[in-house]
Structures are given as C-alpha cells and as structure tokens.
Design brief:
The chain has about 850 residues and is mainly alpha-helical. The chain contains 33 helices and 17 strands. The chain is about 40% helix and about 10% strand. It binds a DNA duplex (15 and 15 nucleotides) through helix 8 and helix 13. Belongs to the E2F/DP family.
Amino acid sequence: ENIFDRSRMAPKTPIKNEPIDLSKQKGCTPERNPITPVKIIDRPQPDPWTPTANLKMLVSAASPDMRDREKKKELFRPIENSEQSDTPDSLQYDIVDDTTVDEFEKQRPSRKQKSLGLLCQKFLARYPNYPLSTEKTTISLDEVASVLGVERRRIYDIVNVLESLHLVSRVAKNQYCWHGRHNLSQTLKMLQEAGELQYGELMTFQHKEQDLEYKFGERKKETIPHSQDRPLLDFSEPDCSSASANSRKDKSLRIMSQKFVMLFLVSKTKIVTLDIAAKILIEETQDTVDYSKFKTKVRRLYDIANVLTSLGLIKKVHVTEERGRKPAFKWIGPVEFSGKTDELRGHSPTSDSLPERGSCAQYQICAAGKQRFTRHASFNGAQPCEGTRRKVSSEPSSPHQERQDEYCSKMINLAAVCRQKIEEDTRNSSITSPFSLLPVPGDSDFCVNPLPQAVFPMVQAEVPSLSLPIGISSQAPHPSTPAASKTENGKATLVPNQPFLCFPSSSLFMLCGGLQENNLSETLPTAGDKGNRSDEATAVVPPAVCQKRCSHKCTSPSSPADDEEPAAKKQTIEQSDLPLSLVVPKKPFESPKAESTPGNACPSAVHLETYHLDLASAAAPEAASKESLDCQEEEKHISKENANQPFQPQYLYVQPTTGLSSFNFLFSANQTPGAISLSSNQLPSLSVPCVMMPSAALASFPLICSPSFTSPVSPVPDGSFSAAASMNFSMSSLASTTPVFISTTAMVTPKVSPAPSVDLQQPAHPALHLSPVLTRSCSAVKLDSPMCVGHPVTLLKLQQPSSTPLTPKSIRPAHHEAFFKTPGSLGDPVAWKKNEGNQTRNASSVQRRLEISGTSPD
DNA sequence: CACTCCCGCCAATTA
DNA sequence: TAATTGGCGGGAGTG
C-alpha cells in the first residue's frame, strides 16, 4: 500500500522527492540507485529517491510501529498536498527550486534538494498553519520521516525548532502535537519580551542605531523589565515542557532557536549576522569558546535558520561590513505583537503552557543543562556602550565608530547573554544546585568572604540597577587557581579619560574611584564565583591557600570566611528566589554623568555576577581576590570625590570566570550621585550601573584607570584601604601572581614599591600592554607586590612578564577594536583555534578567540 | 577557498 | 536493555 502511495507521490514531485536515505533503516540494499553511483558505491545503501527505496523506507518505518499506520495513511495524503505547496516557499532561497531540474536531478538530488529548509517546507506543508482548534493533529515522527523520506534525525531538527516556537509540542515518544501558528504571535511576543530583557537593555545604548547596518539595534524602549517582570520569565518551571523536557534537550537546539529568534525581535534592523548570533550563543552556552565550538554553533544556526526560513520568518541576506560580507538573516516575520496573549493562552492545554515556557524557555534552557556552573549575576540594561565605545574609539587608529557601534551592539548582546546565563545559573543554583554556587563551608577555599550583605542595595533608582541576590554576589568563593592569575598577562593600562581599569587577565577587576560625591559604599560581592562545575577543582584547592593568598596579599583582613559561606548560601538561595530581578529604570539612562562625559555617556547598568572560577585554573587566585573583595567585610565605600568629573565612568571590572564565559563586567564606579551604593547591607539587590563586556574583548585589553579621575576613590579613612579593601577585591588573588595596582585614577600610585609609577601617558612599561587606544595617558605601574593597598582608586593588574605563557596573540596588544569586538567579529576563527592553553582560561582563551591585532604597545 | 549544511556517529535520555 | 533524542563535527556540495 505504501508503495503505491509513494509512487503516486513521486510523480507529483519527482524532483522534490528527496533522496531518501533509507540506509539507516535497514539494510536496504543498494538496489538500484541509478543515480548516485558514488554514494552507492560508498555505501551499499539504496538510493532513496527511487520509488522502491521509498517503499522500503516506508515499510521499514512502518513496521516498527504499526500503531501509527492509520495515521500514516492520513498523513500521506497531506503530504501529497504539501508537496505542491512546498515549492512556493522556496522563494526564499535563491536556490529556487529548480523544479525545473531535470530528471537527472531527480535521480541525483542535489544537496539543495535535500536541504533541511526544503524538508521543513515539506513538513510544514503537511499541516495547516491554522488548524482548527478542535482538531488536534498528532505527528508521528516515524511517519513523517518515512513520508518525507528522511531519517528521523532530520525530523528532530525540524521539530525542535518548531517546538521552540510552539508550533508543535511533544506529547509522547515519537508523538508531537501540531499547534500551527495560532500561538506564534504570542510566542514571538514572549520571545521579544524576553529578548528585550536579555538583550534589549543593551540596546539602550544604541542610539546610533542608524549606524548599525546590521548590528542589532535594539530598542531602547523603556520596556526594560522590572524586576517584576522576571517572574514572567521565570523559568521556574522547567516543567512546562513536557515531561521529558528538562533534559539536555532543552539545552541546545530549542533554546538556541529561541534565542536566535529573540535576537531578531530585539534587533532594530531585524538583521542578525550568523557570526554574531553564534558568538552570543556560544557565550551563553560555553565557557570555553574555541573555534570548533564556533563552527559547531554556526552549523546549528544554519539548521535553525533553514527551518525559520521555511516558516517564512527570516530570510537570508548579507551584510557588508568593513571586513567584508557576512552571512546574515533578516527577520521578515511579524514584528509587532499586540497582545494577543489571550488567545494564546486559550489554546490547547499544551499551548497554554507555552507562554510560560516561552518566557522561561530561555532561561530554563540554560539552566537545565548546566548546573555545573554557577554564576550569579544580574544586571540591567547596560548603557555602557558609549563608554566602551569610546574607549575603543579612543584608540588612535579606530576611527570607525560604526564598527565600534557594532561591537557595542555585539557586546551588548553578549552581555545580555551573560546576564541570562547568570540568571539561569542563579536560578539553578538556588533551585538545584546550590552547592555549585557556594562552596561548601568545608570546602570553602575561597577567600571569598561572603559578605553577608553581599547584596547591594540600590541606591539610586535612576540608574538601572540589578538586584542581585545577595548571597550570590557574596559568594565568590571559589578556589581560584593561582595559576590562572599568573597566566594572565597582567597588563594594566590606564586610559586617560576613562576612569576604569581593566585587568586584562582573568581575574582582575577594577574599581575605579571616581564615584561621584556619593559615597558609595560598595560591597562588592561580585567576586563570588564558585567553582563551577569544577567544583571539584575548587574543592581541591585548599582553602588555606586561598586564604593565604588573600591574607598575604591582601593586607586587608578579608579572609575567606568559610563560615560565611553557609550564610552566603542561604542568602543566595533566598535571593535566588528573589531573583535577579532586574530593575531597570524605565528612563533611559541619562545619568547626568553620562551627559557630562560625552564619551562615557552611557550609563551602564551594573551587572553583578558571581562567577565561578574557572575550573581549569583551579586555583584562581583572582577569584579569591574577588571574593576577598567582597569579603572585605567592610563595605567598600568608595566615595567619589571627583565631583568634578562626575561623569567619567568608572568601572569595576570583574574578572570573567568560566561561568561567565568570558564576560567581563565593568561596574561603573561613578554613577550619578549615589547611584551606586553597595552596602553591606543585606540589600538583596544591588543596583549598579555597569557595563558588561565580553571578556574576550577585555582580555585583550589591559585597561586600566583613567587618569582623568581627579578624585580618587573616596578616601575612605582607613578605609582607604578598606575602601581599597572593599575594593579589595581579593587582592590576594591578584597579588598572588599578578601585581595589582590600585591607584587613583590620575596616577597610579604605586604603592607598590618596586616600580615607580609610570607616567601615564607613556605607553609604557614594556610589561604593560597598553592598548593603543589606551595609550593616551596611561600610567601603568608594575608592582611586584601584588597589591597596592593604598589607593582605592584603581587597581591595576599588571602583567607579569612571564607569569603566564601567553600566546603571542594574547600578548599582543589589543586593538581598541579588539576590545569591543567579539571574537567573531575579529574574524579569524583561526585565532580561536589557538586555544590550547586552556589553563589560561578565559582570559587567554578569550584573547585567543579574539583576534587581537597585535599592535603592541611597546 | 569559503560558505553551507548534510549526514550519521554515538552519547544522553527515555521507555 | 532497547529505543528515542539530539549534540556534534567531519567533510562534501556549492558558488
């Protein structure tokens, strides 16, 4: 019977008949494959496209479960219909169905004919876009596979993407329920909202959207979610998905698909380049990014894009950048989604759940698979771009703002991703694996002191703030591997005008004074990283060590408080519930500061995170240091005195940990007055404007303080140190390997004795790499002694010359461009490949990823 | 050669 | 334990 059906079909769309790959099914003998001798040769498999082959397939498919037989029959009919419909869609493809293709073609179906997009079209043709609500259409994978003449694997690809958009839902093994597009708008709306939360914030700063050719321009809408919104997103229930849902499955293709769609929805231009999307996705998913990962992501994106294209949601385009033409996809689906939500919900039960799922999906997704890492961070929309951008631009060479913009946009995206991750992690941690978050008390190796109040209360409403669960933030403890710290090149550079410091290497963070008058008392819990998946590693690391480091370096008292950890955990957990709600000021950020400083205008949202240290570098001293920072029981008070230059943004740089997957956070120190205050208080959340940067970008940079700062960190009385201490980011860690500087912005006062301060403007120390951009006036000091306590203002971590082996590239001074660029932007994948030195971790890896152009500052 | 992305191995999950 | 799912990446097809 089947055969007959098949045969009928065949005639209709001979061409289209895909080559069926029955081979898998059973031993189909290579019977006659007239057509593709080659393959045949290779494999004994029969050629699919022949009717017989098809029959075989069908039979084989059917046999397994006769159960669906009837259904199949039904299905088949539709299929026939579908075929006809198929072709039309093909429009999207340049390819054009060459339906005209000769029969030869038929025989040897070209790749295009076997494309996933085409297959998807056929698949879709089988089902009505808007099925009657009354009738539920079930989809049998076996059937479909056999009917379409493909392996099931391919069907999974399609179904997974469709499922991410809720066009179908899995009801049982081998069974999917077709919902059609009724809920599509709702789903998209949800995704858009979610996307805005995640990515949209970033958008704020793209004022320049115009420039962006293809970047994401995001909407700045005020839509920024409030903490409240979160609940919506809440992934709280992974459940939503069908029973099986939680599995890793939620992890990849489905999630990736949703995120990919979100990018489009959030993008002003509605155009997303593949590489950017891939990077974003990678960031989310992976700690370590390497070229192969990138390639894999791209492959997956093609898969997804093909399906979305078939759905008529996107189409392929090319964006032309300076670098050249890049493949991209443009959203051609609906853009505005008025709230139809009602409808959505109304739909089938499965569908009902959908909305939730959709919202949560993203988060869930992440959460699902990865508990291994824990990161906590929350951040709001960032507005950093400008600052960042500027910096970048500051570079002498890069005149192209456009690019920078792009970078910014990319970064934004990345940041969003990071945020998402963090959230997820947080969630997870709270939910599932708290441990991951916090080291077990016993374990605590981390120097981190959980600040009881890790949380920062938000001070200023104006600034978009994030609230982090305190615990989370506080926890930073994880064993950091000293090695890691070493690995880094400590390059510290100060950038004139820019108040922030960057620690190139992994674990550093910077605080910059410069807060405005407001005294910010910050407790930066940021450090908390925990051992991620590498808990083990962390565990391994003897706490003592950490402490040592801390103590040793950190003059600051901060000691890893193991004890605290428990508390921290608790907090964390609690907080987790809290969520990382993002508080976003609805207003666009216009912090006065920003205004004041044109360049830096972007107010940044603060992102706090807790990273876990890289496992790899088990002992990340830095981490410790970070924690230590937090640790500092004291709250850090950073007073910003520089009223004068209120606006220069100051950032705290948090070293990216693996968990973060290479993101660096910069917290702006100087916010609008009072904007940031981190108090040791229990405030669960902290709102700080910050900028998040892809670590990669940072990696290459040795940023440092901006001299511009006139007023150093608030001189906290003894706190100065304390301040410093507060800042102290676990200096210990820093100290361990890399020399850190803390200095006021203007100058580095190297407390560190060894090296006298360097003149800012000089590029400097050989040791340091100053990015060209930075070059302006940067002062870098090398300190042998890791820490400089005295000045609260800036910490610099200098590279140690030899400390870690750097790859040549890593060594290179990064361009300013590099700074912002995402790895992908950089271009050569090749660079990525380098990652061999995993140990170097993020920083190194990042650097590798990124191509840093090597203009060495020398 | 770069871009696409098919194909199918094989691990993770489920039943 | 077998079957279902689906991550993943080699490497082929296409331009």
